[in-house]
């Protein structure tokens, strides 16, 4: 498959235009290597099987662009029949001003626009971002309710929930996110209160579970929980307990 393209020329041009600001990449994961990814092309085993890509990102960061054209090119090159996709938050296109709690609404607005582009058919048959998972700070407790309403409005019927980093580890080298969560986040009173403001069709999605949520998961109330980025050593001891309480 193709991958995120190198936009050095556009980056150089952006440097000459100070109003065009792309945030630097801040990720614990290295960027993809097109030279390695394109070495082998494998045929699809079931090219007629309908597939929903259940987890992908879109962004325009300095030297690290992956937007609608790149994503749909990857789908077209894959040989798979990807009919729809679900966008998962990645701290992209937050509003540059306004109340801090509402800046993440910009990400949902941005993705909804790209979703509308995909429905034109100009980028292939995939319904990109048929569902959108955004971000809200559940540590706001009850005060998060109007932020969730703004996210729903921005999604135009496609907003489905929030993803918030919850993984914590005493070793600072063990992380899955540029902004690690504080220890005990999921059992804190503000988080639990904020999570209770989520209800279907919204959902809470965390990066990685650790033992505390396994013991206290029932405190979160009605929202269904979804976990991702589970392939971590910590799961060897606590993953089964956490999964037994996850929907």
UniProtKB/TrEMBL annotation:
Record region (Disordered): 1-36, 208-233
Biased segments, Basic and acidic residues type: 1-18
Coiled-coil regions, chain positions: none
Name this protein carries in UniProt: Amidohydrolase-related domain-containing protein
InterPro entries: Metallo-dep_Lactonases (IPR052350)
